[in-house]
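Record type: monomer structure entry
Structure origin: computed from sequence
Chain ID: A
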Amino acid sequence: MIPLRDEQETASCAVATCTIIFISSLVFVWQMITGINDQAVAYTFGFVPAKYTMAQMAAYFSLMNKLSSPFTYMFLHGGFWHFVGNMWFLYIFGNNIEQEIGPFRFIAFYLLCGLLAAFFHFLLNHSSAVPTIGASGAIAGVMGAYFLLHPRNKILTLIPVFIFPLFVSIPAFVFLGIWFFIQFINATGQGAGAGVAWWAHIGGFLSGMALITLNTKLPKIGFSKSVDRFTRKKRSPRLHVVTPGADPSGGTDLYGAIVLTSLEALTGTKKLVTIPWGFKKSVYRVVVPAGVRRGSLLRLKGMGKTIPGMPPGDLLLRVDIKNVI
């Protein structure tokens, strides 16, 4: 299952999330230059439980290194797909959590989740001399927070079925519940020796749930509102999800809605619309003309119902506009 986006749009750009992705990208480029499989880098900046429990190994590392490794490990990755997968999941789930708690708290939340994930891994692998690297534990914490805060949000998910791309909208609690179950099965079953820190994923997820609950008890200090004034989005997502409804009069046309920002309505834009209805073609290009108004209908020819003996109906998208200027 590959998440494409969640259906709850945020009002502001995710500054902290994008900053973490940017820093992680710079570190990954540096890893590629030095050698992605450089063991010296992995042992120096990765999290190695034996640094703290085995005197022979501990002697090779300074106190500063031992204190920094539980943080630096989450910015390293073991390969291209490891890096891309982690950053994509952070991009999908991070923006909603950042909007909920603000960019400054989000950075602290992310780092704490990564730290607690490392601690969880340490408890169950305290003598391991294998370096653990990757942002998975911290991102699992973001997913745990999402699981509690937005359980009924729909996640547009791509499920490859042979050569057919199947697009389905899955409630977040189902998607994340399946993900957590897979981590647990791997941690307790045959996947335990596969070189993946499954318990760090589990610990990060549970830590995220605990920390986001604690956050509700902390007073707000108003920094987020100040930042929001400068980060408010000017454009809606490129990809829109439409669940069409039937014509009340019983015709062959179908009706849906598309949400634009005031800037997009003024200048015009191009969007991709996906309709989760199985193996049929489900992604369409929509050209929105400049000057479109709220309530206008955009017609997609032939995308309505098909009734024997009648020409195919159309899909009519009603325009809604937010952030009116």
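Annotation 1: The longest helix spans residues 80-101.
Annotation 2: The chain has a mean pLDDT of 85.
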